[in-house]
Amino acid sequence: MSDVAGRSVLVTGGTGTFGSCVAVRLQQLGAGRVVIYSRDEKKHWDMAQRYPELDYVVGDVRDRDRLHEAMRGVDVVFHAAALKHVPGCEHHPLEAVKTNVLGAENVCAAARAAGVQSVIALSTDKAVKPVNVMGTTKALMERIVCSAQRKIGPIFCCVRYGNVLGSRGSVVPLFRSQIAAGRALTLTVPQMTRFLMTLEQAVELVLYALEHARGGEIFVRRVPASTVEDLARALVRYESPQGDDHLMRTTGMRPGEKLDEVLVNDYELAVAETPDEHYFVVPAAANRSEPLNFLRPSDPRNEYTSANTTRLQSLADIYALVKASDSQNALSSAS
Fold this sequence. Notes:
globular, Rossmann fold
């Protein structure tokens, strides 16, 4: 029996890449009702052509009253709504705060008032040691959601992951559009490393968290990484008419970018549980058997980063991961 079988589930940001994919999986697992909540009426209409059996609610996570209405009778909430593009958040920081921070508080308050059983919020590697507005607001989102566990009510937890291949605004669609137009691929910094996660792995992570959360944890899935240059070279080799001769151009790092990303920092790694080879579970501060020693020197060698995780260097292996994510996205679009 699945943890969602027969249950009513609401997905904020439900018209996004993740929302579409998780909706298909929820149906396969026998969810009793799936509510898609987002502010984009056009995306609602488009999605309803593919999934007419889902429920659609137009609303913004900034609107607590609307969230209260949407969560009536809901058992589980996957909170995926966010402003997630780094340059946009850098230019409009207050808007990022309104959606990513205050929106998270609204989701928690509405879930508690509606008697929701579980809330799983989606975070990002950029929330760890943040250097940009998007990461900072997502770090605050994690604290808001995990600290909500201190009150009686739903089980609250977060999942944290890196780049989901093929998601809207990610680099793969950008590279493909440049290849299709015959333009040079624009690489910020060739040696920059990024985690590579498929849509299926992202969905598996939230379902794993739903099944195993006791309250206040952050769940992280181990995934491989590659350099931006190797990812670009893989797409060029297998999709460009020019093959390896396709031009590439280095543009330099954008405001708020890191050379490498961190999914679990050294303080968290000191107390993280490893239930199996695929997951880290960072426990809630209240559940830790001993306090973290924040006076000890920080040691980046004891972090889980895109520089020290399994590195994909074979272009064939990188492209196979891209194609696997393509297939999962196509399945959610066609179902």
